[in-house]
Specification:
Elements: E1 8-17, E2 23-31, E3 36-40, H1 68-82, H2 90-101, H3 111-129, H4 133-138, E4 144-145, E5 147-154, E6 167-172, H5 178-200, H6 221-233, E7 242-247, E8 254-255, E9 258-261, E10 264-266, H7 268-281, E11 284-288, H8 296-306, E12 311-314, H9 322-330, E13 336-339, H10 341-344, H11 347-359, E14 363-367, H12 377-384, E15 389-391, H13 398-414, E16 419-420, H14 425-429
Parallel strand pairs: 4-16, 5-15, 7-11, 11-12, 12-13, 13-14, 14-15
Antiparallel strand pairs: 1-2, 2-3, 5-6, 6-7, 8-9, 9-10
Helix pairs in contact: 2-3, 5-6, 7-8, 9-11, 12-13
Length: 432
């Protein structure tokens, strides 16, 4: 196949709608040889201060969230610069996007714009090469399916209840395949629905942005106790087959040096004591953003106190930024990196963050956003990079299940050569 076949022939974009009914940008890349790719930028509700900036229109249309300026930038400014470039030069193309923006946080052309274009480029090159996207990105060694971590009870900014912590998750790791793990998750989700409806009524099983339930709970023990019961009712053993996870999203709780939890302003030491109590009493193997995004010392204290039992994962702390990953890992502040391509704005920068984590023995988890779409890119990315986990929401709402369905397809495509990351989890946390 001639190299010219991979050259970009046409780039265009349009405005589409995400899972919250807000506009977002979809980019298309067409190649000279017929290869075709697309990408849609997701959007978060809980955002770190250092995330790439979304470019939105403001004004009254679309409640100020329109992206017509971003679309116009792609069609008039970016497209002429990309046409004729070899789509396989992903790093070059992403660096060109960064240079065209020219700001530290991609505020000129928008991190949403660069994300959609970066993903579309990778898809087009994979299509032209005749490869599955995960194979194009990861090579022949991309055969491991990640552990799904599923947000099934919501709090914080994802819900209207009194739970301070943002997400309570199930982690089905004690299985031999991704298919078996998802089956268990679906069964547990169904049992959880029944328990919540019985205790709190029909409104408790309405689902939020990520498909999780938002029952009228207040203390963190309530969802954790209920999840253990749902796991057991589904016929699984908590801690051995299915464990639990928490995304505290503690930046949302931080005020003037203290954390607002359960109606009280508490110190970082008191908050760490809460986590210690929860980890001792429940099979928690995943703890995300336990402290605010600049509180490196508290993250380090969490690693020292809890990492023998649970991953300490940085989201707002790291914002998928390679330099932040290096800094945090050097300080011993994290054992896990949450990867969100749109946080940093390009696939290349996300891959650099993953490599920085790998080099320092930090596990990585590929993640969706609360405002997501039918784009399944993160499923392929998780397999391509050998991610330990994928965080894609509850087994409900098609923008969430599309990711899991894509992983089921990948596992089927790989056949007997596929493996599942689940059995590695407890050994990784407990040092083997």
């Amino acid at each position: 196949m001639g190299g010219e076949a991979f050259n970009i022939r046409r780039v265009r974009a349009l405005q589409v709608i995400d899972s919250r009914g807000n506009p977002t940008i979809k980019a298309y890349v067409e190649l000279a040889g017929g290869g075709y790719g697309w990408g849609i930028a997701p959007s978060g509700a809980s955002r770190g201060e250092r995330e790439a900036v979304e470019l939105r229109d403001g004004g009254r249309k679309w409640r100020g969230k329109g992206v017509s300026r971003a679309v116009a930038i792609v069609n008039t400014i970016v497209a002429p610069r990309l046409e004729g470039v070899d789509s396989r030069r992903q790093s070059y193309i992403d660096r060109l996007l960064i240079e065209l923006d020219g700001t530290p946080n991609k505020s000129r052309i928008g991190g949403n714009t660069t994300t959609a274009l970066s993903i579309a480029t990778a898809r087009a090159a994979a299509d032209q090469a005749g490869l599955e996207l995960f194979q194009y990105l990861g090579g022949a060694g991309a055969r491991r399916l990640p552990i799904p971590i599923l947000n099934v009870i919501n709090g914080g900014v994802h819900a209207g209840n009194d739970l301070d912590f943002q997400e309570f998750m199930i982690v089905p790791h004690g299985f031999n395949s991704f298919t078996d793990a998802i089956r268990a998750a679906v069964e547990i989700y169904g049992e959880l629905r029944g328990l919540l409806k019985e205790r709190y009524g029909a409104t408790a099983v309405n689902v939020g942005d990520e498909g999780g339930f938002a029952p009228p709970m207040r203390k963190a023990e309530e969802p954790l106790q209920t999840l253990v019961q749902a796991v057991e009712k589904a016929g699984y053993e908590p801690g051995r087959e299915v464990s639990l996870g928490i995304d505290a999203a503690a930046s949302q709780l931080y005020r003037d040096g203290r954390y607002l939890v359960e109606g009280k302003a508490i110190s970082r030491e008191e908050l760490l004591n809460i986590y210690q109590r929860l980890v001792e009493n429940y099979p928690i193997v995943y703890l995300e953003d336990p402290f605010s995004e600049d509180d490196f010392e508290s993250f380090k204290a969490a690693v020292e106190a809890l990492s023998a039992r649970t991953l300490i994962v940085g989201d707002d702390l790291l914002v998928t930024n390679p330099e932040r990953v290096k800094e945090a890992s050097a300080d011993g502040a994290v054992t896990g990196l949450l990867v969100k391509v749109n946080q940093v704005g390009t696939l290349t920068e996300a891959l650099e963050a993953i490599q920085a984590a790998r080099d320092r023995g930090v596990a990585h988890i590929v993640s969706h956003r609360s405002g997501d779409t039918e784009d399944t890119f993160i499923a392929d990315l998780s397999v391509a990079t050998g991610a330990l986990m994928i965080k894609a929401g509850a087994p409900a709402r098609s923008e969430r299940t599309s990711k899991y369905n894509r992983l089921l397809e990948i596992e089927d495509t790989l056949g007997y050569s596929a493996s599942y990351a689940g059995p590695e989890l407890l050994g990784l946390i407990r040092g083997g």
